[in-house]
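User: Please predict the structure of the protein below. I'd like the answer in structure-token form so I can feed it into my own downstream comparison script.

Assistant: Understood. Taking the following sequence of 223 residues as input:
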Amino acid sequence: MPQLNLETREITLKVVYYGPALSGKTTNLQQIHKLLAQAARGKMVSLDTQNDRTLYFDFLPVEFGVEGDYKIKLKLFTVPGQVMHRSTRRIVLAGADAVAFVADSQRSAASGNAYSYRDLETNLRANGIDTSTIAQVIQFNKRDLPDIKPLAEVREAWKGTGIPTVPAAALQGEGVLETFEALLRQLYQQLDRRLSFGSKFGLTEEDFLEGLMVHFQEKKPKS
């Protein structure tokens, strides 16, 4: 649920990158942080846990013609992927408005992806978040590695869910912004469906996307 601060006139939206250990969640967040204009990003903070860590930073208040002079702030988080950190993942998911699930495209990672996605659904429900309505995107990362699932197979598996899938090689910066933009689109649509977000704040989907994506220094990172 978005947080509305009447005093500072800010709308805060929480975005969480979720997935199994070593799938590329941290890499995604680091790439996004690096590509954002310095004035539009907060400091990257790392909370270390045993053999893993949680990262987060603020996409600072962005003002782009929202009715009532409100500014929009995004808070971006990763979760520790290792099985032992389930309680931490549940805590980080609290209040989430959107989730990017980062999966490892290698065939050997299929069971880990499946376990992690079930864990995501369980933790969303534990936080009172409707798994069928929260904005989601599935990123199939590590497309640059051998023995990966073909995209046709991936898309067929997720076709009935309505959740967009995006191929990526996050270490090379490929698919990172595409995933983020797809998630923002899903986020706007869910907010508008549930809260009449567009009419309340005089903001179309394209205005919302353009107003946030314009703060990236380049549209596509160089590999």
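That's the full token string. The chain has a mean pLDDT of 89.
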